[in-house]
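step 4 of 6: structure.
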Amino acid sequence: MSLEEKIAGNIEVRTREELFLNIQPIQAAGRLTPEAMKALIAYGDGYSVCDWCRAPFRLDCITKPPIDKFHKEVAEFLGMDVARAVPGARRGFQAVTNTLVEKGDSVVMSSLAHYTEFLVVEAAGGVVKEIPLNEKNIVTGEATAEKIEKVKAETGKLPKLIMMDHFDYSLGNEHDVYGIGKVAKEYDIPFLYNGAYTVGVMPVDGKKIGADFVVGSGHKSFASPAPSGILATTEEWAEKVFRNSTMKGDLTGRVFGAKEVEMLGCTLMGANMIAIMASFPAIKERVKHWDEEIKKINYFLDQFLRIEGNKIASEMPRKHTLTKVDTIESFHIIANTHKRKGWFLSDELKKRKIVGMFFGATKTWKLNTYALTWDQIEYLVKAFIEIAEKYEIPLH
Amino acid sequence: MEKVVEKIFQSQFALVDLREILRETKPVFALTEEQKQQVMDIIKVVRESIDLVEKVLVGK
């Protein structure tokens, strides 16, 4: 669907959130609140948040608009002491790995870690050591301890950091972050909790988990524009990760002592900063209703499983709305003989105003029902059932 | 002119709220009575805002 109205040149107006049910797996919880949309309208100009920037001339210290207050409140919201808004979760990871990891150091992480976790370790000169999954595709505390022992035996040193996704991007499975937090304390290894799929949708208490660092993604789970994210930590680690510059120019003698090295001075400026702040009140409210979101995805999947051959690749019952499904023995069989091959399913969904599944996929693919209303969930169920009936796939 | 600027933002923000109603009711757009009332309230805000902008800037 493209409107005649254009933003400029051939840049189309994006209408899929107004006209379609979008079940795209990673877009669901990043959809903006109306407050964030208003922030984009009012604060789009480049240095819009800098009108009242005064000494020490740093973003997190600006009082008007109340950026300083937001930083304090978001740290508290995550059960941590200090927080910074950052341009995406990956920049939060990077601030930590740049601080802790030196050439040749090992970092242990999940076998389902996001690629950016690999990249930040690589950029710091470190080495990724992956923790295997158990038979249920879960990373446990025990497996983490075993991997740490293995790394120690191989390298003679303990890993410098544990990075763990609470819910992974691939299956949306919950990993044993509490157990891993305990292991991290036992070995005295800093623990980075990757909350890209939790911070902003469900309650997260970093200290209760045993995390030294909590990283969230604004555009994945905090109803904010990309790039945006949060890095929160303890008082102890804040001194290191948010350390101030000590560099002095050899000719001019200039120093920038108020600037935080890993934040490169100011981090998330302009409309993105105000948008994440504007969404925050709604975020604080919506995390209280995570249970309802879980009810909705489990209800949807119960109905989805009525279609003979459909399976769920993710752990069941679901603890997250991001879910991988397996339709090899249902829709993929139709795709094998359909003139549109795998595209038939996307076509059928689009006809019913549903978009967001990986175009052409009929084997295993992901969806996310986060924030759909119950009416929209029922609509989604009906659409899949109708498609199954049309192609004479038996229903249970 | 402050009033004009205020009304421009007010109408833009009201249209954002209208966009949100579309997002909540897609793809069937079966609005509840409450949502229909919200639409009417939004339209009123936009009309009044635009009327004032026209009066001040164009003199009509």
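step 5 of 6: annotate
 - Chain B touches chain A through 14 residues (CB under 8 Å).
 - DSSP finds two helices and no strands in chain B.
step 6 of 6: archive
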